[in-house]
Amino acid sequence: MRSKQLIIIVVLVFLGSTGTRAQSLENYFSTAAENNPGLQARYKAFEAALQRIPQVSSLPDPTFSFGYFISPVETRLGPQEAKFSLSQMFPWFGTLKAKEDAATLAAEAKFQEFVDARNQLYYKVAAAYYPLYKLKKWIQIEQENIEILKSYKEIAARHFENGKGTMVDVLRVDIKLKEASTNLDILNQEEKPLLTTFNKLLNRSAEDDVDIKVVESTDSFPGHFNKDSLMAQHPLLKRLELMRQSSEAAETAARKSGYPKLGLGLDYVAVGEPTDMQVEDSGKDVIMPMVSVTIPIFRKKYNAAVKEAQLKQESLALQQEEFTNNLISRYEQVWFDINKQEQLIRLYNEQIKETRQALKLLTTAYSNSGKEFEEVLRMQQELLKYEKKKVAAISKYKTAVAKMDYVTGAP
After folding, report:
1. pTM score of the predicted model
2. 107 partner at 20 to 30 Å CA-CA among 88, 173, 253, 363?
3. For 89-134, what is each residue's pLDDT tens digit?
4. If DSSP states are collapsed to H, E and C, what string results for 171-225?
């Protein structure tokens, strides 16, 4: 019954939503979940664990034996010619149920391993997706910067021709243009390794295109997650708890295995016709019901099995405590990263706005006077720096949000 409930949970997990991000990333999550060989391996391990349940919850095979008397044993009713025996051993009451519970809980723990691997894969996909977004935006910003520098070069050249500027201004723009062109070439070369990393998580060709759709506004968080809720829903904590429960059931099974086992059997003896004299029931076959009991007097193996299960429970309880401590630490660090990037994004938005205003004033002044061109270039590079920093902060923010989903075990 419990294994059927576990299968239903599996179906619900596959049908469940993966969050509220842009639809494009949602599709990549689905593709990764379907194609990633590492995740498929985890699921196969879970399916293999399910097959353990009927193995431990079944009765041992019955025993059938046949014996033929080469020299028939003479009895008063006739010679015994052959003997058939059938017997079945039964473990102590509740032993099979305890073993089934232990195997079922162990399979559920394997399923939680699969859930954690799925969540970790989603985080890896997001962590590879947002750097591609940053690269795409940086390329776009650098291309716009080159076009602006080209326009500055034309203005500087005209001012030099009109005697309002100097040749140094033209050379300054040339230097910045070469630097921008080199940066653009490097950014274009960076795309291949990032694409390869992302596509291989989806188990597809490294050259496949990736559709980047990122909502650049920051998500709103209501505040810190409730710590008890955080501890309750992480799949690895669920796994440890299920393994502890499985060890409890294994302890019960080990205790019951040390109790006597009952055997029921039936002997059938084929009796031939007597050769000397006829009596009542002569030649009639013999049917003999049998009962047997094992006597578990060698207790070392049973006591060791009980002790093993108890020590496993203690070990798993300590692992739960350790993992909980690490999880809280990671949660606080990721929460700090989210808030940090959110503050930086606000800062860069303000700096971009003010830098654009200053650049507009400087450009107007230079167009009229032909002076302070160096300050125009410097302000343009400041704007370029803040725009790139904002994009990088957005990328880090989105990645941190994805990591928070993993740390909290969010679906």
Report:
1. 0.83
2. 88
3. 999 999 999 999 999 999 999 999 999 999 999 999 999 999 999 9
4. HHHHHHHHHHHHHHHHHHHHHHHHHHHHHHHCCCCCCCCCCCCCCCCCCCCCCCC
Give the span between the Cα atoms of 16 and 11, in whole angstroms.
9
> Residues 254, 305: contact at Cβ < 8 Å?
yes
Q: Which amino acid is at 175?
A: I
| Residues in Cβ contact with 74 at an 8 Å cutoff, skipping those fewer than 6 apart | none
Collapse the DSSP code of 54 into the 3-class scheme (helix H, G, I; strand E, B; otherwise coil) and give the result: helix
Q: CA dihedral defined by 215, 218, 222, 225, rounded to 10 degrees?
A: 90
Region for residue 19 given its phi and psi (left: phi exceeds 0; alpha: psi -120 to 50; beta: otherwise): left
CATH superfamily ID and name for 2-35+94-259+301-408: Outer membrane efflux proteins (OEP) (1.20.1600.10)
Token readout for 9 is 């949970």
Q: Cα dist. 150→154, 185, 332 in Å?
A: 6, 17, 47
